[in-house]
Amino acid sequence: MNYVGKLRVQNPNISDIDLAKKNVSRKSFKNGLVGTATGVGGLITLPLTVPADLIIT
């Protein structure tokens, strides 16, 4: 089952628009955490963190 399907099963009574908002909110939070984690090392770790960031997001 895909991610949206899992969200639908977990939240059967919400509308499609609310489901889309929940999906965007969760993905935005995840991408923010990934960006923070890969930005910690600064310029020194840039060659490693840019590919990792692209793969994870």
Describe the structure.
The chain has 3 helices and no strands. It is mainly alpha-helical and 57 residues long. It is elongated. The relative contact order is 0.10. The mean pLDDT is 85.
Discrete helix count:
3
* Stretches with pLDDT under 50, minimum 5 residues: none
SS strand fraction: under 5%
What structural class do you assign from the helix and strand content? mainly alpha
Mind summarizing the main beta sheet? none
What is the CA-based Rg, rounded?
15 Å
Level of helix content?
over 70%
The first-to-last residue Cα distance is: 19 Å
H/E order of the elements? Answer: HHH
Mean pLDDT across every amino acid position: 85
**How many beta-strand runs?**
0
Overall 3D form = elongated
Can you lay out the helices and strands and say which pair or pack?
Blueprint: H1 3-10, H2 16-39, H3 46-56
Could you give a short description of this structure?
The chain is an all-alpha fold and 57 residues long.
